[in-house]
Amino acid sequence: MRNSYIVKILFGAAIALIGLAACKSKPDKEAHADHKVGHLYTCPMHPQIIRDKPGKCPICGMDLVLKDANKELVIDSSIARLTKPVNTQVIATIPAISPESNTRIYSSEVSGVITYDTRNQTSISSRVGGRIERLLIKYNYQPVRVGQLIMEIYSPDLAAAQRELLYVARNTDNMLPQAKQRLQLLGMQPAQINQVLKTGNILYRIPVYSNSSGYILEKSATAASPIISPAPVEGVAMGGMEENVQVVGAVPATPVASPVLLREGQYVNAGQSLFTIYQAKDLIAEFAFPPQLAARIKNGQKLLFYPIINNKALQPGNIGLIEPAFRNGENFTLARVYLDNNNYQVGQLLRAIVPIVYTEGWWLPKKAVWRSGNKSVVFKKENDGYVPVAVQTGVETKDMIQVITDIGDWKVATNAAYLVDSESFIKAKK
Predict the structure, then answer these.
(1) Which fold has domain 90-101+361-426?
(2) Sign of CA dihedral 177, 203, 192, 274
(3) CA-CA to 424 of 20 to 30 Å: which in 63, 88, 91, 357?
């Protein structure tokens, strides 16, 4: 009995040792097997991210966890859609609207200035080259009369021509008419030529007279002209029309009695234009139109204008001339209105109301379009989300904006700014 009991104890201990050895060897084999297969790591929030070593998720930055290699990766498409950046898609429940398409009439406001009519301007130039001995014009826009003495010029060529006249008069009469004609072409008056023949004294100064009455302006100076600077403002309704589209604020170069740059003792060339004389009997109103409005006006179109200081003094007018202009680095279009009365003064600021008809494009509230520099973006409805799409825009009213891109069958978010994530849009790819 005792021997059998000892045998049972020894047999049980042997079985226990064998089991313990088996337990120690099994993990080593499994670890060895796993090492052969290779570990895979994935992101708990983005299962489509799979790496062969630990690290960070490139989307959310979470630590990658060990993935079971025996299980097939299943990506939840709904989660992947929700995790797209906002410059690709935005999930939101804000209301969507349809763009409007119909003919609209808006009254656009533009600013202008009263200036001289260039059709009546005259130019004063020197017929001979020489030195200014006497200058009677001191300031720009100084009033002058026809026949008024403007300046006196000393010219060696004029003195030489008078000596030839005296020589021809003493020796032969055949060339005398030609010698007189040459002096007249140089600017001498017939009475002065007869005085030279009678006295035999040479006149060294040639007078320059005004050829018309008006206001004299130095040729190097610039006449009054509006400078474009568009700025949207709230406008007034015009009959059954909508609010105005845009105001072009004009900053005119008003006439200033500045000193002339010509000085006594300065040399001038033959044929050089020195002064321009503007006549004040006929004035014009010049209005500056930005490109988006200039394409819609035409010659003969009617408008209403009034002085800025008195918005009740409305006066009708017709556009008589349209010309492109480039000043101070800005491209714009000048429209002239020829005035029938002289109740205005040069340099007086005006504002005009021009009706414009729009038959093309689509119209959205301003809140539905988001501006990023020169780019305009709307959020198009797709399924249960919104996709940002760049569009081309036109004119703006007080509350509406014109979209040139065809968006007729779209549904657009009512408030684009609500869906914008500024950082993602800055980093968005073009």
Answers:
(1) 2.40.420
(2) positive
(3) 63
At 288 the three-state DSSP class reads: strand
- Residue 138, both tokens: 């001191």
pLDDT at 7 over 80: no
Percent of the chain with pLDDT over 70: 75
- Superfamily classification of domain 107-121+223-256+279-358: Efflux pump adaptor protein, beta barrel domain (2.40.30.170)
Burial (CB count within 10 angstroms: exposed 0-12, middle 13-18, buried 19+), residue 102? exposed
Contacts of 24 (CB under 8 A, 6+ apart): none
pLDDT digits (tens, 9 = 90+) for 212-250: 888 888 877 655 444 444 444 333 333 334 444 444 444
Burial class (CB in 10 A: 0-12, 13-18, 19+), 97: middle
pTM of the shown model: 0.56
CB atoms within 10 A of CB 238: 18
Contact 190, 197 (CB under 8 A): no
Residue 36: HSE in the Cβ half-sphere, 13 Å Cα cutoff:
5
* Pairing verdict, β 349-358 and 104-116: antiparallel
Distance in angstroms (rounded) separating the CA atoms of residues 354 and 372: 30
Order of all β-strands in the sheet with 205-209: 205-209, 149-154, 130-135, 267-268
Residue with tokens 């398409």: 101
